[in-house]
From TrEMBL:
Species of origin: Dioscorea alata (Purple yam)
Record's protein name: Reticulon domain-containing protein
Length: 186
């Protein structure tokens, strides 16, 4: 009989701990309310894939990016997919390079601005207002000095490595150079 009462006390303590972990404030809830809360928790688990606590749209941020990713905004998603496909075709199939694309884009922009500014007198519009950009002499001198300092520091490190004063760095660089040489051979 004493063992039975100890087991029931242990069960009661375990139940109290479970209730506190669940956040139940009162321990005198009826069985009906407990079954309703457990059934709503089960329903929540059923309607969310893999037992998530939030819907997928909210997991992806809940904004425009989530709409595009989940195909809720079909036009925006089609534009993103078309743009990504065009970039893939340019770089992968046509073997176009990023630097070439940037340069061609800048040349095209310059040509359009030139034509627009010359044609603006014929179509009675004001020419585009392009701000004047200039770098002061002080700024250029500061940039040159900082660049000179960084280059001198790099050359000093390379000199120390070449003289072999720092054995660990020397072996690391020589090992890297050896691997680079092996990989560059045909």
């Amino acid at each position: 009989m004493a063992e039975h009462s100890e087991e029931s006390k242990v069960d009661q303590v375990v139940e109290k701990i479970k209730e506190e972990l669940r956040g139940d404030s009162s321990s005198s809830d009826s069985d009906h309310e407990k079954s309703e809360s457990s059934s709503s928790a089960i329903k929540a688990k059923i309607y969310h894939l893999f037992g998530r606590e939030q819907p997928v749209h909210k997991v992806f941020g809940g904004g425009k990016a989530a709409d595009v990713f989940l195909w809720r905004d079909k036009k925006a998603t089609a534009m993103v997919l078309g743009g990504a496909t065009a970039i893939w075709v340019l770089f992968e199939l046509m073997e176009y390079h990023l630097l070439t694309l940037v340069c061609h884009g800048l040349i095209l922009t310059l040509a359009i601005l030139f034509l627009y500014s010359n044609a603006s007198t014929f179509i009675n519009k004001s020419p585009p207002r392009i701000p004047e950009v200039s770098i002061s002499e002080d700024m250029a001198v500061k940039i040159a000095r900082s660049l000179r300092y960084e280059i001198n520091t790099a050359l000093a490190v390379l000199r120390e490595i070449a003289l072999g004063r720092d054995l660990k760095k020397f072996l690391g660089v020589s090992h890297f150079g050896f691997i680079w040489l092996i990989c560059s051979l045909p």
